Structures are given as structure tokens and as C-alpha cells.
Amino acid sequence: xIRWMLLLGLLLVGxxxxxxxxxxxxxxxxxxxxxxxxxxxxxxxxxxxxxxGPCPGCRGAKKLKVVVPGPNHPAVVKGTVRDLAAxxxxxxxxxxxxxxxxxxxxxxxxxxxxxxxATVVFEGSDKVTYAVPATGRIKTxxxxxxxxxxxxxxxxxxxxxxxxxxxxxxxIWSERARLVTEEQEADTTxxxxxxxx
Length: 197
What we know:
This protein is α+β, with helices and mostly antiparallel strands. It has helices spanning about 1-15, 95-105, 180-185; strands spanning about 25-30, 65-70, 75-85, 120-125, 125-130, 135-140, 145-150, 160-165, 170-175, 190-195.
């Protein structure tokens, strides 16, 4: 039974089901942004790698489906939960903490001062409870809007913060190569939470 479920899952992924749509979204078909609609990798656009054969974005199809996000389309929220005492001189400087988060972004390990076993509750347009892994990193999807956030962890005082999640603006491309552009990354809301013992 499990083998059949895995096979079905692979078939669905292979069929290019594409990104999820939400009420208010529009689905359009556009020329592939990586090859400019030629279907060939030798004509790559937007700084993609140049090679022979079919375009890795559309696999030679020349066009791709695009979801144009509406007002209810969830946006990516990324961030960290850190122990304030572990941050040293930058503890009171949110800009320095944000810079540290950007610098540590490529490292898959725990962030400096990661608070394991933390729980983050976002209350606003959605109510989402997120269990923070040992890395101290957060990655979730929230509808656009204003959120009151409560952060708890064993051995730490409860933390409170408010954040705004911006509406997604950039189209979401149904690429077979699963390439993420700077524009799509710009639609991400970044948050850093610090807790005191």
C-alpha cells in the first residue's frame, strides 16, 4: 500500500501540479522567464546558467503557468528565535541581529544563540502555532496582515512582538527546476525574536 502511495506522490509531482492557488489569485500562462520562450538552455535569461539542450526551467515547453497572487495568498515568513544573552554586544541592536541572520542564512546549522523547543504563536489574519526546531530557524506561511506574536520556551520569559506580513506581489512560476528569484525572495517577511532567561 505504501509503495502505491509513494508512486502516486511521484506521479503528482512529476505532472507539475504547480503552486497552490487561493481565492483572488489569477493563473496565467507566460513565456518561460529563463529561456525567453525559446525552450533552449542556450538562450537563458536572468543570469541563469548557459548550457546546451532544453531549458531547465520549462524543459523545452517554452511556456509556464504563473500564479499572480491575490490579497489572500500566504507569504513566506522566515526568521529566528535567539537567546538574548548569547548575542553579546549586538543584543540591543535589531539591525545587527537581522544582519547576523542574513549572514547565517546559508549555514544549515543552528543560528547563534538558537533557542530550541520554542513555540511561536502568530495571531492575526491567521492563527498559526509554529514549533521551532533546534536550529532556532522559523519558516512558515501566513496570510498578509498584522500579527501579535507570542514566543515561549522552557527556561525563558514569554516574549511578545508585533509584525506585519506584506502581501505577495511577485508572480509564482510553476518551473520544473524550482528556481527562486530575488524578486520572489523579496516577498518574504523576515523576523527575529529574542528571549530573556
